[in-house]
Amino acid sequence: MLSFGVAALAKGMLVTLIVTLGASLVTSVLALIVGLMRVSPIKPVRWLAIGYIEFFRGTSLLVQVYWWFFVLPIFGLALSPWTVAIFGIGLCASGYGAEVVRAAIQAVDRGQYEASIALNFSRLTMMRRIVMPQAIRALLPSWGNMLIELLKATSLTFFITIAEFTSAAKLAADTTGNYLLFFTVALFGYYIIARALITPFVRWLERRLSPGFVREAMA
Amino acid sequence: MTIWDWSYVWEALPYLSLGAIVTVEATLFGFAIASILGLVFALIRQSRNRYVSTAMAEVVEFIRSTPLLLQVFFIYFVGPEFGMFIPAWIAGVGMLGVHYAAYCSECYRAGIETVDGGQWEACTALNLSPQRSWRAIILPQAIPPIAPALGNYFVGMFKDTPILAAIAIPEMLQRAKNFGGENYRYIEAITMVGFFYLVFSLVASAIVQAVSFWLNRRYHLQ
Amino acid sequence: MNEPRVRLQNAAMYYDALTVLGQPNFPMAQNEKIMNQPMVRFENVTKRYGALTVLDKLNLDISRNERVSIIGPSGSGKTTVLRMLMTLERINDGVIWVNGEPLTHMQRSGRMVPANNRHLRRVRGQIGMVFQHFNLFPHMTALQNCMEAPVSVLGLSKPEAEARAADLLDMVGLGEKKNHFPIQLSGGQKQRVAIARALAMRPKVMLFDEVTSALDPELVGEVLNVIRKLGAEFDLTMLMVTHQMGFAKEFSNRVCFFYGGKIAEQGSPDQLFGDPQNERTRQFLSAVLEAK
């Protein structure tokens, strides 16, 4: 019985990791695009981005997931639970991510824009060579938090019958009747992924991407 | 078969609005817990005893890095194993509150830390007791600036209430799904729920803006 | 932080203070004994930040109603003296006495041990402080700023505290502005409110920590005038850290020149400004006067 539970947990953990990784890729790409659109000088582009952000942030993640899962098949588009999990979570989180990107870009010192104009950079060169490298460094801590939120959000795929970590823990606990053991293991499992995997990874990225910035020792 | 059928909308409306009441109640009760317990967490975190403050920080960190769904399961299912039956409503709303209390405590902490150190020195020089210093001087300055962030968590809690469906609390989305299942029509009910969430989020954000503006004016912090 | 237990070097003095304070109607002889004691006494006080010694075995007695100015280059430890006396900084060694009673320590079974919060709160009630950056409570009006502590610490009723606060705000020339919030006041006005706020606690000792340094030059005068007025009208022992040499010369009974965590030279204003003995003092004064 117990070995069955352990095997289920291990498989669930793997599913959770895959969905987290996939969703974070979707989110990162979309958030970057929409975040850049959000600070575009062209008004309609900006409005489009605002609509996107408000829509995905305003409707609950689970509502969106249900919509993809139960409503889309009506239009003849039956997505696999995996696709719904990765893209559903990724799309929803990209609304938040876009705001993070916008804040990071707007946090870049105005003097940098003025210097770029004084040096006669094109807008594209300015964004690519001057603004983005500084903005990326500024958004990394928020991005790390977002990854942890993504990790937690994968638990919601429980509702569309994907056997990820939480579902696996529930299944194992239901089968063995030992709720305390399996739920405790699962809680610490998430905690370890978040604090021993994601946080150090983001810290490492911060160090890698911070040439010319003296970072204070993180507490 | 039409894509959008208004007759289903009218049929689902009373059924969903019962769920909406549950959702709003859960959010309000949960937020009451989160905002008070969050402050308690933040104050414990400020303790001069290094072990106490580190332990509090770790607990907050733990709550923040594990999924609410799993926490709700834990509270709801582990209790009966030891003969403690916790009603679903209390387990769900309570855990929602505790989960967001961890987030709110980080907000409060940020607010407390931005209060100028000179304010504490003035409190010492005027011989105010620590309790009075917190209540009359520090917190009135710490809280108004973080009102928008707390408000965002209020909206966030609202959007997390569907998780309570996992322990059979009949909130709005759960009802939409049941309605869809019974009628083999998901599109209207789920879209309505999404629309309700969107409207609530936008309205709540506007109210949060207004309240925090008022708070900052009220305490002359701008 | 480990505060070393200090041997009771001044046991006789301490017991005198204790027995006298314990009796409501003490005989005149002992009353005079208290009156002759220094209002503030620093006894071998040492303050370190890590490896850096900011104050090194400071000994300084300040008599009742004396007005002492502390001058010196930045980093000489002069502000630290005030902050220690206000208990904003802990001391590493030595004892500070206020009105014949130890402030930093208390008596426990015949030995001096570091003071607990209750003791600190009781003894430091005799001290008031005005800060360089005012530290007014931004969410309270000038009047509320002056009422908060009298109500919540001294237990005055609201009307009593309000009358006291209004009087003091009149005294500093801000009776008209009593319902203004700090953000609506100029720097000089803020500092005058801060002085009124400290006075509302009826302290015996007032500490002024570079109170004009954060002010625009044209606002310095109004604050100094208020301090002059305090000197004339109140029974107050005053200890001020200042960069206003003219004011220090005119107003104080004694000037202490701090250098490298020690008092390098002290004396009457005429003596210290007119005929400084120490080479450091001469250098400092000529540098300051040159800048004027």
Which features does this protein show?
heterotrimer; A: 219 residues; mainly alpha; C: 292 residues; alpha/beta; Rossmann fold; 6-stranded mixed β-sheet; 40% helix
Largest sheet of chain A: none
Mean pLDDT of chain C: 86
> β content of chain C, as a range?
15-25%
| Largest interface, C-beta within 8 A | A-B, 41 and 39 residues
Please identify which CATH superfamily of chain C we are dealing with: P-loop containing nucleotide triphosphate hydrolases
Total strand segments of chain C = 12
- Find the count of extended strands of chain A (DSSP E, 2+ residues): 0
Total separate domains of chain C: 1
Order of helices and strands of chain A: HHHHHHHH
The span between the termini of chain C is 42 Å
Question: Could you name the ranges of chain A where pLDDT drops below 50 across 5 or more consecutive residues?
Answer: 214-219
| CATH-defined superfamily of chain A | MetI-like
Q: What series of H and E elements makes up the topology of chain C?
A: HHEEEHEEEEHEHHHEHEHEEHH
Instruction: Name the CATH architecture of chain C.
Output: 3-Layer(aba) Sandwich
Distance between the termini of chain A: 43 Å
Q: How many alpha or pi helices of chain C?
A: 11
Count the helices of chain A. How many?
A: 8
Quaternary structure classification: heterotrimer
Q: Could you tell me the mean pLDDT of chain A? A: 87
